[in-house]
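[DERIVE C-ALPHA COORDINATES]
===
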Amino acid sequence: MRLVLLGAPGAGKGTQAKKLIDNFGIPQISTGDILRKNVAEGTPLGKEAKSYMDKGELVPDKVVLGLIEDRLKQPDCRKGFILDGFPRNTAQAETLDGMLKKLNMPIDSALSVEVPKDDLMKRLTGRRTCKSCQQMYNVYFSPSKKGGLCDKCGGELFQRDDDKEETIKRRLDVYDAQTAPLIDYYKKGGILKSVSGTGSIDEIFGKVCTALGLK
Protein backbone atom coordinates (compact mmCIF):
# COMPACT_ATOMS: atom_id res chain seq x y z
CA MET A 1 0.00 0.00 0.00
CA ARG A 2 1.58 3.26 -1.18
CA LEU A 3 -0.55 6.12 0.05
CA VAL A 4 -0.71 9.92 -0.12
CA LEU A 5 -2.66 11.41 2.78
CA LEU A 6 -4.70 14.56 2.14
CA GLY A 7 -6.82 16.72 4.42
CA ALA A 8 -7.01 20.19 5.89
CA PRO A 9 -5.35 21.14 9.19
CA GLY A 10 -7.41 19.58 11.98
CA ALA A 11 -8.93 16.86 9.78
CA GLY A 12 -7.28 14.10 11.84
CA LYS A 13 -4.82 12.82 9.23
CA GLY A 14 -2.08 12.21 11.78
CA THR A 15 -4.33 10.11 14.01
CA GLN A 16 -5.47 7.93 11.10
CA ALA A 17 -1.91 7.60 9.79
CA LYS A 18 -0.79 6.28 13.18
CA LYS A 19 -3.56 3.67 13.18
CA LEU A 20 -2.57 2.55 9.66
CA ILE A 21 1.06 2.30 10.78
CA ASP A 22 0.16 0.30 13.90
CA ASN A 23 -2.21 -2.05 12.09
CA PHE A 24 -0.37 -2.65 8.82
CA GLY A 25 3.29 -2.05 9.68
CA ILE A 26 4.10 0.50 6.98
CA PRO A 27 6.14 3.66 7.69
CA GLN A 28 4.89 7.23 7.62
CA ILE A 29 7.11 9.41 5.46
CA SER A 30 6.94 12.91 6.94
CA THR A 31 8.95 15.52 5.06
CA GLY A 32 9.41 17.54 8.25
CA ASP A 33 10.88 14.54 10.08
CA ILE A 34 13.15 13.66 7.15
CA LEU A 35 14.44 17.24 6.91
CA ARG A 36 15.20 17.45 10.64
CA LYS A 37 16.95 14.06 10.63
CA ASN A 38 19.17 14.85 7.64
CA VAL A 39 20.07 18.29 8.98
CA ALA A 40 20.94 16.80 12.39
CA GLU A 41 23.07 14.06 10.78
CA GLY A 42 24.78 16.48 8.41
CA THR A 43 24.10 14.45 5.26
CA PRO A 44 24.90 16.14 1.91
CA LEU A 45 21.19 16.80 1.25
CA GLY A 46 20.75 17.85 4.88
CA LYS A 47 23.53 20.43 4.53
CA GLU A 48 21.97 21.72 1.32
CA ALA A 49 18.55 21.98 2.99
CA LYS A 50 20.08 23.77 6.00
CA SER A 51 21.65 26.39 3.75
CA TYR A 52 18.15 27.45 2.67
CA MET A 53 16.62 27.12 6.14
CA ASP A 54 19.33 29.29 7.68
CA LYS A 55 18.36 32.07 5.25
CA GLY A 56 14.68 31.67 6.12
CA GLU A 57 13.91 30.33 2.66
CA LEU A 58 11.77 27.35 1.67
CA VAL A 59 13.75 24.21 0.86
CA PRO A 60 13.44 23.68 -2.93
CA ASP A 61 11.33 20.81 -4.20
CA LYS A 62 14.33 19.07 -5.79
CA VAL A 63 16.04 18.84 -2.38
CA VAL A 64 12.89 17.58 -0.65
CA LEU A 65 12.35 15.00 -3.41
CA GLY A 66 15.95 13.84 -3.04
CA LEU A 67 15.38 13.31 0.69
CA ILE A 68 12.13 11.42 0.00
CA GLU A 69 13.83 9.25 -2.64
CA ASP A 70 16.61 8.29 -0.22
CA ARG A 71 14.01 7.43 2.44
CA LEU A 72 11.89 5.30 0.07
CA LYS A 73 14.94 3.20 -0.83
CA GLN A 74 15.19 1.95 2.76
CA PRO A 75 14.04 -1.66 3.42
CA ASP A 76 11.02 -0.75 5.59
CA CYS A 77 9.33 0.91 2.59
CA ARG A 78 9.22 -2.26 0.48
CA LYS A 79 5.72 -3.17 1.71
CA GLY A 80 4.47 0.40 1.25
CA PHE A 81 4.46 3.84 2.84
CA ILE A 82 2.26 6.77 3.83
CA LEU A 83 3.32 10.17 2.47
CA ASP A 84 2.28 12.98 4.80
CA GLY A 85 3.00 16.67 4.13
CA PHE A 86 4.11 16.19 0.53
CA PRO A 87 3.00 16.89 -2.15
CA ARG A 88 1.45 20.24 -1.21
CA ASN A 89 0.44 21.28 -4.71
CA THR A 90 -0.11 19.80 -8.16
CA ALA A 91 3.34 20.77 -9.46
CA GLN A 92 4.93 18.79 -6.63
CA ALA A 93 2.54 15.88 -7.27
CA GLU A 94 3.58 15.70 -10.93
CA THR A 95 7.28 15.72 -10.01
CA LEU A 96 6.69 13.13 -7.28
CA ASP A 97 4.88 10.84 -9.74
CA GLY A 98 7.85 11.04 -12.10
CA MET A 99 10.28 10.11 -9.32
CA LEU A 100 8.09 7.23 -8.08
CA LYS A 101 7.71 5.90 -11.63
CA LYS A 102 11.50 5.77 -11.88
CA LEU A 103 11.60 3.79 -8.63
CA ASN A 104 8.75 1.54 -9.80
CA MET A 105 6.79 2.58 -6.67
CA PRO A 106 3.68 4.38 -7.98
CA ILE A 107 1.06 5.72 -5.57
CA ASP A 108 -1.82 3.22 -5.09
CA SER A 109 -4.28 5.62 -3.44
CA ALA A 110 -4.67 9.24 -2.39
CA LEU A 111 -6.84 9.34 0.73
CA SER A 112 -8.71 12.58 1.43
CA VAL A 113 -10.05 12.96 4.99
CA GLU A 114 -12.89 15.48 4.68
CA VAL A 115 -14.32 17.55 7.53
CA PRO A 116 -16.72 20.55 7.27
CA LYS A 117 -14.96 23.90 7.73
CA ASP A 118 -17.06 24.84 10.78
CA ASP A 119 -15.93 21.64 12.52
CA LEU A 120 -12.30 22.30 11.61
CA MET A 121 -12.54 25.78 13.15
CA LYS A 122 -13.96 24.35 16.38
CA ARG A 123 -11.34 21.60 16.54
CA LEU A 124 -8.48 24.06 16.10
CA THR A 125 -9.63 27.28 17.77
CA GLY A 126 -11.15 25.32 20.66
CA ARG A 127 -7.83 23.81 21.72
CA ARG A 128 -6.51 24.75 25.16
CA THR A 129 -3.20 23.62 26.67
CA CYS A 130 -2.15 23.36 30.31
CA LYS A 131 0.80 25.64 31.06
CA SER A 132 2.13 23.16 33.61
CA CYS A 133 1.70 19.61 32.23
CA GLN A 134 0.80 20.36 28.56
CA GLN A 135 -2.46 18.34 28.80
CA MET A 136 -4.75 19.25 25.89
CA TYR A 137 -8.46 20.13 26.04
CA ASN A 138 -11.06 21.47 23.62
CA VAL A 139 -13.70 23.92 24.81
CA TYR A 140 -16.25 22.42 22.37
CA PHE A 141 -15.54 18.68 22.46
CA SER A 142 -13.50 17.84 25.58
CA PRO A 143 -13.60 20.78 28.00
CA SER A 144 -11.91 20.83 31.39
CA LYS A 145 -14.30 20.15 34.26
CA LYS A 146 -12.59 22.99 36.16
CA GLY A 147 -13.19 25.72 33.58
CA GLY A 148 -9.90 27.42 32.81
CA LEU A 149 -7.87 25.00 34.92
CA CYS A 150 -6.38 21.60 34.14
CA ASP A 151 -8.23 18.58 35.56
CA LYS A 152 -4.93 16.69 36.01
CA CYS A 153 -2.71 19.22 37.78
CA GLY A 154 -4.77 22.38 38.30
CA GLY A 155 -2.51 24.39 35.98
CA GLU A 156 -3.80 27.34 33.97
CA LEU A 157 -5.15 26.59 30.49
CA PHE A 158 -4.21 28.85 27.58
CA GLN A 159 -4.77 29.17 23.84
CA ARG A 160 -1.61 29.00 21.75
CA ASP A 161 -1.07 31.81 19.24
CA ASP A 162 -1.23 29.38 16.31
CA ASP A 163 -4.68 28.19 17.51
CA LYS A 164 -6.24 31.67 17.37
CA GLU A 165 -9.06 32.26 14.89
CA GLU A 166 -7.21 34.62 12.55
CA THR A 167 -4.23 32.22 12.26
CA ILE A 168 -6.46 29.18 11.69
CA LYS A 169 -8.47 30.96 8.98
CA ARG A 170 -5.22 31.85 7.22
CA ARG A 171 -3.98 28.23 7.41
CA LEU A 172 -7.25 26.91 6.00
CA ASP A 173 -7.21 29.52 3.21
CA VAL A 174 -3.67 28.43 2.27
CA TYR A 175 -4.82 24.80 2.23
CA ASP A 176 -7.79 25.62 0.00
CA ALA A 177 -5.65 27.60 -2.43
CA GLN A 178 -2.61 25.34 -2.66
CA THR A 179 -3.39 21.82 -1.50
CA ALA A 180 -7.10 21.24 -2.20
CA PRO A 181 -6.46 21.17 -6.01
CA LEU A 182 -4.56 17.93 -5.36
CA ILE A 183 -7.95 16.29 -4.79
CA ASP A 184 -8.86 17.02 -8.42
CA TYR A 185 -5.41 15.90 -9.58
CA TYR A 186 -5.71 12.48 -7.94
CA LYS A 187 -9.38 12.16 -8.89
CA LYS A 188 -8.39 12.58 -12.55
CA GLY A 189 -5.72 9.93 -11.97
CA GLY A 190 -8.41 7.53 -10.74
CA ILE A 191 -6.81 6.86 -7.34
CA LEU A 192 -8.66 9.29 -5.05
CA LYS A 193 -10.49 7.80 -2.04
CA SER A 194 -12.56 10.18 0.11
CA VAL A 195 -13.80 9.52 3.65
CA SER A 196 -15.70 11.61 6.16
CA GLY A 197 -13.46 12.66 9.05
CA THR A 198 -16.34 13.07 11.52
CA GLY A 199 -17.19 10.48 14.17
CA SER A 200 -15.02 8.58 16.65
CA ILE A 201 -11.42 7.71 15.78
CA ASP A 202 -12.33 4.03 15.38
CA GLU A 203 -15.39 4.83 13.24
CA ILE A 204 -13.27 6.95 10.91
CA PHE A 205 -10.59 4.25 10.78
CA GLY A 206 -13.23 1.72 9.73
CA LYS A 207 -14.20 4.03 6.87
CA VAL A 208 -10.55 4.47 5.92
CA CYS A 209 -9.96 0.70 5.79
CA THR A 210 -13.11 0.17 3.71
CA ALA A 211 -12.12 2.91 1.26
CA LEU A 212 -8.62 1.45 0.86
CA GLY A 213 -9.92 -2.13 0.48
CA LEU A 214 -8.17 -3.28 3.64
CA LYS A 215 -11.14 -5.21 5.01
Remarks:
- The chain has one domain: 2-26+79-211.
- The chain has a mean pLDDT of 92.
- Residues 165-179 form the longest helix (15 residues).
- Residues 87 and 94 are 9 Å apart (CA to CA).
